[in-house]
Amino acid sequence: MIRGVSSDTRCGNALRLALSLILVQIIIFGNCINGIIPLIDSVSAQEPQKRSIDLNQSIFDVRVEGNESIPALAILQKTKIQRGRPATRDMVLEDVRLLFATRWFASVVPVYRQTEQGLVLVYKVKERPIVEKVEFRGYKKIKIKRLQATTGLKVGSPFDIAANQESVNRIKQLYVERGYRFAEVKLLKGGDPNDREVIFEIKEGPKVVVSGIKFRGNKFVSDGVLKTKLQTKKAPLGMSFFGGKYDPATIQDDLISLKQYYNGLGFFDVKIDEKVGYNKDKSRVQVEYTINEGKRYKIRDIMIEGNRIFSEEEIREDIKLAAGEYFNSRTLATDVEKLSERYGELGHLFAKVTPQPRFLEAPGEVDLVYSINEDKPYRIRKITAHISGDNPRTKSSVLLNPMMVAPGDLANQRLIAKSKRRIEGNQVFQKGPQDGPRINVTRVNPEREMLASRENDILRGQNADEQQVQKLRYPNLKYRSQTYKQPAPQQNQDLFEGIKTEPVSYQSPQRTGQIFRGQNYDNGIPEPLNPLFGESPLGDPMGTEFPQQQPGWVDLDVYASESRTGRLMFGVGVNSNAGVVGSIVLQEENFDILRPPRSMEDILDGTAWRGGGQRFRAEAVPGDQVSRYLVNWTDPYFLDTNFSLGVSGFYFTRYYTDWDEQRVGGRFSLGRQLTQEWSINTQYRLEDVKLYNPRTPTPAIVQASVGDNLLNTFRISLNHDTRDAAFLPAEGHLLEWAAEQAVGDYTYSRLEANGSQYFTLYKRPDGGGRHILSLSAQLGWTDTDTPVFERYYAGGFQTFRGFEFRGVTPRENGIAIGGRWSFLGSAQYMMPITADEMIQMVFFSDFGTVEEDVSLDQFRVSVGAGLRLTVPAMGPVPVALDFSVPLAKESFDQTQVFSFYVGFTR
């Protein structure tokens, strides 16, 4: 220590010195690198900087100095300044930045040099050290190409100690992601400035997989159900190839998920602990969850607050969670949704129903309070469509057509939600919580906007003569069928970003100067001006029970993102009805028949034939027993209306037991969605049916159809669909009534009625594990002139299990000739075997008959059981395996104990 100088003084001097050095470096870097003025070099050492240089003259040459291993040509290829052109300071600066971006150089200094030939720009560089060798030692489980790609290091790349050390972390993270949680990575060489080799030493260690998951203490919920709530999964057969990677982070997520699940069932005091145990070599993990379920809470009482529009009795009709029952968050959510829909149907879009549990001193009891803020009704002012995507091509009408509300309508929450579901069902747009369709509902004040815009008291898009204001009547609301309609609110959230198309707006035809003043919501009669009785149910008979608020206005912004609508699919299937079939399908869900290619660019960028929301499908399905080739085009909103139009052409061959059949033809269909549940469809069918190779002795009815037959039919059908899902429904029904008339070579009438009803007989408290009973019936009658290839047949896994395909039918000389009357029914009970419902068992009974006349004399019955196996890799349709035994049959019937369906689509 130097005497007489304090340590504080020395520290201050050192700090000032350091700051001075930093300042000098900044000045040098700013002058030389940031291109303020590049250094000026003279022709010779005798003339340091005496000659004046005109920096505006053209550059005679661009050179590189100081490079040792990197060729000058390779360096100059990274620059932009060219010979024969002037070089501004910004251009020089850009070149310097480009050279630094290569990471080849530790420094780059631009220098002007005046020569006899002209002005020369010189880049004086100092190269970084070059990596001479990259080596990975000890790796076995991961290929060297993957390691090289992870680090980005290769021979000839700049030597960078920081990059080498970062590569250690990247390699370790790669191993952890692959399940090698105990992997160690060391940098043997490459951490010293004098190194030119980079060598990594890897100790991979074991791959850690979950070999078992156990639960202790759980009584109310089975192990299988709890496992479905976990992100952590067991490795099948202990083999890491099939998954089961261990990740400690998911254990904590699993604890939260399990607690939330128990809380939702009323176990508010549940406690869950986890324990993780390794085997000796730490390659296997046993995860154990210890659960103290605690007491399950019951609801002591239910109270309702804030309701004025609906009585307490009306509200309680929608509440299924009753006093004395166990708390269940799923049932509670359903009740809240129903109450919100009740208010939403009256336009009270922002009504809030808040369930508030009140815990009591008595253990295991809770009061439930429904706090209701009714708000006021709203009408829709305008609807705006926003379609995003990498290169959006879809017309706005494709997004707006499924809407069931329109500008000027009451903001019916149920119809808005239904509209959203209809958009979600459109394959044109992406699905899911992140990218799926969204609707942003925003409260607006048209009068304030009107005053601000000063557009003569007329909203944009309105006509001055549109002065009629539709009276607001509720609760007697009716379904409105509109051309442009829209989906469901999300409480003023910004639900979608990255919009690239211009919004298209549809304005309300109503004027803000006439906003429902003095109307009563019940009947549209003006409210009396009696201040004494206006709020009393007594006295003035015209009075209201509570003061009514004037309706507000909302704007709907509908957001959707285009999905990949074009698909080329390959598949193979085998079933007991049709044998083995393959399939090649070209499908486009966003087809536009009016957008042909106008240039090669339209074809390359995918603009041609796309954007109209129409559906196009071309398929080839060759098989050993049946083959089909089909082209189909459908517009679900023809001319932007609720009418659907479809046109198809097909070629079909089938090798039956008793004859071979070939069909060539087309169909034209026109339909309309009448309401949410009712629809009507008409169809014209034109086919050439060729029947050949009949078995002998050939019945007369078969012989009459041998050869070519022209078939012309007109069909009309009416449908009523209340199913909760079109695929594997659990509730609701589907009914169809149809009539068909044939003309031409054959003249006959046909009447049909089909129906299916679905019941959920049991489900777990969480709503899963449903046991579903399905009942179905089919009735059909056709006239005497019906050809043999259009008569009724039954049998096989689709119509009558326990009998062969077409095994139930009248016969002549042992040959199936079909019937004019058909009645088929089925009762099936389906229940899951596994908690994840991937394996389900079915018990069923099929019954009915096919006869020449209306009769039940030859009634058949079969009973059986089967399995439904869902294999995600094979597609959404489950594998069906059914065993069935006929209990009642005819001597000439053809039976079949086992029927099946297996399909695979990619």
H/I helix tally = 14
Helix share bin = 10-25%
Q: Assign the CATH class of the domain at 716-905.
A: Mainly Beta
* Mean pLDDT over the full residue set: 82
Counting DSSP E segments of at least 2 residues, the number of strands comes to 35
Walk across the major sheet and give the strand order: 18-19-20-21-22-23-24-25-26-27-28-31-32-33-34-35
Would you identify the regions where 5 or more consecutive residues have pLDDT less than 50? Answer: 1-37, 42-50, 451-546
The CATH homologous superfamily of the domain at 716-905 is termed membrane protein fhac: a member of the omp85/tpsb transporter family
Query: Which of globular, elongated, flat, extended, rod-shaped describes the shape?
Result: globular
* Alpha carbon gyration radius: 39 Å
Query: Given the helix and strand composition, which structural class is it?
Result: alpha+beta
Strand content: 35-45%
CATH topology of the domain at 716-905: Porin
CATH architecture of the domain at 716-905: Beta Barrel
Largest sheet, in brief, is: 16 strands, antiparallel, barrel
Terminal CA distance reads 80 Å
Describe this structure in words.
It is a single chain. The protein is α+β, with helices and mostly antiparallel strands. Among the domains are: 11-127, membrane protein fhac (Ubiquitin-like (UB roll)); 133-203, Ubiquitin-like (UB roll), CATH 3.10.20.310; 209-292, membrane protein fhac (Ubiquitin-like (UB roll)), CATH 3.10.20; 298-373, membrane protein fhac (Ubiquitin-like (UB roll), Roll); 716-905, Porin, CATH 2.40.160. The protein contains 14 helices and 35 strands. It has a 16-stranded antiparallel β-barrel with strand order 18-19-20-21-22-23-24-25-26-27-28-31-32-33-34-35. The chain has a 4-stranded mixed β-sheet with strand order 1-3-4-2. The chain has a 4-stranded mixed β-sheet with strand order 15-17-14-16. A hairpin with a 4-residue loop joins strand 3 (105-114) and strand 4.
